[in-house]
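[audit] Reproducing an earlier prediction to check determinism. Same input, same settings, fresh worker. If the tokens differ from the archived copy the diff job will pick it up downstream; this log only records the rerun itself.
[audit] input (491 residues):
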Amino acid sequence: MKDLKERAVRGGFAKLCAQVANLVIRVGSLVILARLLNPTDFGLVAMVTAVAGLLNLFRDFGLSTATVQQKDITEEQISTLFWINLIIGVALAGLVAAGAGLVARFYHEPRLVWVTVALASSFLFNATGVQHAALLKRQMRFTTLSMIDIGSLVVSVCVGIAMALAGLGYWALVGMTVVFPLIFTVLVWVVTSWVPGPPQRHAGIRSMLHFGGTITLNGIVVYVAYNLEKVLLGRFWGADALGMYGRAYQLINIPTENLNSAVGEVAFAALSRTKDDLPRLRSYFLKGYSLVVAFTVPITIACALFADDLILVVLGSKWAEAAPIFRFLAPTILIFAMINPMWWLLVSLGLAGRSLKIALVLAPLVMASYVIGLPYGPTGVAIAYSSAMALWVIPHVLWCIHGTVITFKDIAISVSRPLFSAVVAAVVAGGSVFYFLESTTHLVRLVVGLSILLTVYIGMLFYIMGQKRFYLDLVVTLTRKSPPNSRVGLA
């Protein structure tokens, strides 16, 4: 693919724009719903999603990733994978619905029975759209996929807000959760115009199933590691405490999820196409990695520096107790920006087994931190979790890049430039706001502080750190006229 760079940049830009819109919509919906609902409503739904979310990792059995990662793939293979995904989805929906009573008894909360049954339907909706979405990613039609994602989100948010205004409480969150995959699946079917054929016993998918199984097992281990604290907080501290922690956790993870989605999906597709051209793969990976870190560093600083103002402006005064949790979780934004892209590298190179081994070492470390912090409530868990991740980040990076074309020096350079720029910007913004604007409103401090922070950061990064040319090159590539007839087929 001679125009792969242009496709990657345009796809990344489309995803980035979509994720900005996604961020605005999600934060906007959170602002509205946080005022219409109470922490207990959020906590009740979080109790179910923390448990059912584990089974959600089985929804495509890693087969969508396998579809994208394969150098060549046939119609028969994709059709067979579709039917496997559908069978898995039906089984998971039935399993979750059947376990509704157990979930309610575990939390001592009878209201969770029907919440669990309702959320079970999302497994079926997700399963029927997995391969259609994978085809769009394989074809690098990220602009189309972004529009579908935003459209589905808008519809689901509108449904959730309408239900909240109608006084339906936590059912508004359930409705929003179920509607999104339903709309998304309908739209990807319409856009791809692909109808799966009958499954084929000898379609040659054994290696893809093995690859997908490894990806799924990796996802399970990581999910348990990153979500066990919610189960523990819900069990031992109750729905209100979990609601506070959950909203702080959600706000902290919005930048990570959005940036990883914006750059990660495009980067993985591009790296999978260049895995036989190592110099090109190295160049693409480091550019994508640098972008994620550069966008994430100022967000991390802003969340730590202006935590109280952010929580009070976004969620309202009744969520004030979430501010210290939010501040102590802030370092994980940068930590995940440094370690998440390593997954693109490992999986695109076919090193899913190494990724699984890393996850198996990480999980006990993180889970031990929850146990240490749990006696001190949500804030204690946040401190312990961030500390554990900070200790892990360098060993994680070294293990991932071992034996690849990426060196630790490459990573250090990619991180040091934006980090130094952000530290300088934080000193200027923090000093200005807390010295001159201490008595003003939270909104004024937040707007002025973020403006100063971003202005100083961009100036430092572009002119002192010499990164202006890198971003100008991206703009030039983005505006270059694309060649005709450039759509990628199955192969």
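[audit] rerun output stored. Observation attached for the diff report: Confidence is low (pLDDT under 50) at residues 482-491.
[audit] end
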